[in-house]
Amino acid sequence: MSTFTRYTIDPVTRLEGHGKIEIFLDEAGNVANAYLQIPELRGFEKFAEGRQVEDMIQITERICGVCPEAHHMAAVKAVDAVYHIDPPPTAKKLRELLYSAFYVADHTTHFYILSGPDFVIGPDADPAVRNVFGILKAAPDLTMEVVKARMMGHEIIEMVGGRKIHPCGAIPGGMSHGLDEEKRQQIETMGRSMLEFAKKTITVFDDVVLANSGYVDLIKSDMYTHKTYYMGTVDANNKVNFYDGKVRVVGPDGQELVKYGPDEYTDNIAERVEPWSYLKFPYLKKVGWKGFVDGAESGVYRATPLSRLNASDGMATPLAQEQYERMYATLGGKPVHQTLATHWARTIELLYAAERLLELITDPEITGPEYRKIPTETPTEGVGIVEAPRGTLTHHYVTDEHGVVKEANLVVGTTNNNAAISMSIKKAAEGLISNGKVDQGILNKVEMAFRAYDPCFGCATHSLPGTMPLIVTVRDARGTLVDRIRRD
Amino acid sequence: MAKLKIAGFWASSCGGCEIATLEIGEKVAVLAEVADIVFWPALVDFKYKDVEAMEDQSIDVCLFNGAIQNSEQEHIAKLLRAKAKVLVAFGSCAYEGCIPGLANTTTAQGIFDRVYGPSPSNANVGDIRPVTEYQAPEGVLTLPKLYDTVRTLGQTVDVDYFLPGCPPVGKQVWAVIEAIASNNLPAKGSVVGAGVRALCEECKRIREEKKVKAFYRPHEIMTDPEKCLLEQGLLCAGVATREGCGALCPSAGMPCTGCYGPPDGVIDQGARFLSAVTSIIDSDNPDEIARITDSIRDPIGTFYRYSLPNSLLRRKRIV
Predict the structure, then answer these.
(1) ipTM of this model?
(2) In chain B, which residues have their Cβ closer than 8 Å to the Cβ of A461?
(3) Domain ranges of chain B
């Protein structure tokens, strides 16, 4: 039997749980395989059974405290469908308003607090300062603007949805309360500041990342490139939409593979189970599972900000559209396969969310009196889909005639990318490790491979006092400690 | 004065408690002045070995969020208990079991069969289940064992203080951090970061006579924006829930769902809520009463949504 050297990164932090990376080297010291293991399971789909279906709108928020708004929206859309009710326009606009405010806050958190340090401070900088406090020192005014933008986002979420974290306002048929003119004006004022902040973010990305050829080379490097399918929700004009539309999938060549509505998700998505992880591996059913490989023959797809841009024909707001065109012109056309360009796409989505927020808050219907309808039909079954920041989010409920859940199925944002993240980790490791030589930089550069996908990785890591340590232990096949690398 | 050594951990929870901690906003800088974070997987050095190497009682305060649902979480809870002078159950999951505690309506097997068995989107060729030890071609891959029963932190180890809320609101998190920093904590076993009375006491809605002929689900009726929701027939848990959040949900037209746990003096939140609900039914007719109570389709999810593991019931019987 061959002898393999094992590298363990444990734990890798995610806010909603815990991840573990195992990297195995062969006898020549090259990467033989890499596994991303998710060692946690809470069982929401099971204990959904027996619950009143409308309670899932609040219960499923507790899947993720970072993006409860996404579960709130996917669940309420599914429950609307269960009750066969189409909420009035004011209700849909209030929900999308809340959701746009959430996107501004969430993308801001990710871009500045999580990934920002890699670029602002530098991927090879002293890790002790490569965090939000490093940014605070380097750019104190900007950091305070980041804090303010986040707080305004959460303020709007509470005004529209009742609570800053785990909102309660969305109910089948609409929203629990409307918006009065006084609050509308307050939100509009905040929205204008948020738009200015979003525009500034585009400038920050230009100055810090694009003006530095080293970073552009890093983004373009093969180590962070995978040619996969891309998924995202689009409106009737194939423009990106976070709250509603159809899910569009394009191939590695950029051509549309399929465009499907919520009810057709089971024709398009299948989930694979591996014995070594509690998290399933979704893939495109029509293409099929060919293993952890990319290319047109493999059903592995990605659902990220970059994926959404790749899967669309553009952005529905003017400033974001300009930036969309500029990104593809700079990176050589569509689709863009470079994982790290996800950060660029995120800033464009941030700008779109702020523009969309202002469109909605200045729409006369937003303060309309009809913010809900009372469902009258017998509940049956429904699917709701929204774009969570980390990927397309699908909630599916089947109920009895009293609206009690009989069966629930959830395909969650980050889960979409489970296979792709594993591949990215392996490829980054392959790019960094050869002949058994492990560079200290593997730690952050492997991290960068998944940080591009998932803001949950180390959200708080970069945002509270402290450092971002990672420890890689190197063991031989018998488990004897060979080396231990620590980056504090 | 030496800086406080603070540790944190999350177990079976959603990360909302971490985000709630961020809601202290600019005060994070103040926290950095008075405390060193010595362990918090989300924040600083997260290798379990480093904690194992610490002297017992060498951490001043450990803020632990999340319920205990698997073997790894239990191990860390015991480890941190040994290392920390003061252990705080931070948030509803650690305090009461919270939403993950609804898994006590099923078993690990039940969860496995639903998540990995036949489902609308599963393509599980070979009916695979994740296993605690898997022999991959390159070596053994391990996963923690999922338990049948979700336990609270207090059911797992000795806990000094309980901070309720799903999640605790930011100002309450800060109040507790200030109390810790100024060594101004109440008696061991106290609930901190909240009031002692029922939520109704801080709710602005007008209370009159509690007599109802029917219960409604929130989407079934248009409610009066000024009046008590329970009096309008919505199952608002405020009567059986501790004050502290500012009555956020009722202010938004939605019933309280009970995330702050029971007020002082109440052992079982669900029983208190149930007795309040049954006492306001305006009928002497057994058939009518049965019809009214039958409209409550999910007693567990209604009365024990956040507190099942910490209740007198604890879990559904395993047959």
Answers:
(1) 0.96
(2) 42-43
(3) 4-100+149-181, 106-147, 199-303
The residue extents of the domains of chain A are 5-40+419-487
User: In b/e form, how buried is each residue of B73-112, taking b as 16+ CB within 10 angstroms?
Assistant: bbebbebbbbbbebbbbbbbbbbbbbbbbbbbbbbbebbb
Chain centroid to Cα A191, Å, comes to: 22
Closest residue of chain A to B150, computed from CA coordinates = A42
Is residue A93 within 8 A of residue A413, CB to CB? The reply is no
The alpha carbon of B251 is separated from its chain's Cα centroid by a whole number of angstroms, namely 21
Q: How far is C-alpha B243 from the geometric centre of its chain's CA atoms? A: 15
Cβ atoms of residues A390 and A69 within 8 Å: no
Are A52 and B297 in contact (CB < 8 Å)?
yes
CB contact under 8 A, A278 and B248: no
Distance (Å) from the alpha carbon of B279 to chain A's nearest alpha carbon: 23
pTM: 0.93
Chain A residues lying within 8 Å of B119, measured CB to CB = 45, 271, 407, 409
In whole angstroms, give the CA distance from residue A260 to residue A415: 19
Residue of B nearest to A477 (CA): B139
Distance CA A470, CA A472 (A): 7
Q: State the DSSP code for A109.
A: I
Answer yes or no: CATH 3.40.50.700 is held by domain B4-100+149-181: yes
Q: What is the chain A residue with the closest CA to B250?
A: A162
- In chain B, which residues have their Cβ closer than 8 Å to the Cβ of A471? 47
Q: What is the pLDDT of residues A182-238, one digit of tens each?
A: 999 999 999 999 999 999 999 988 988 888 888 888 888 888 899 999 999 999 999
Over residues A384-410, the pLDDT tens digits come to 999 999 899 999 999 999 999 999 999
Q: Which of A161, A289, A469 sits opposite B46 (nearest CB)?
A: A469
Which sign, positive or negative, has the C-alpha torsion B260, B264, B269, B273?
A: negative
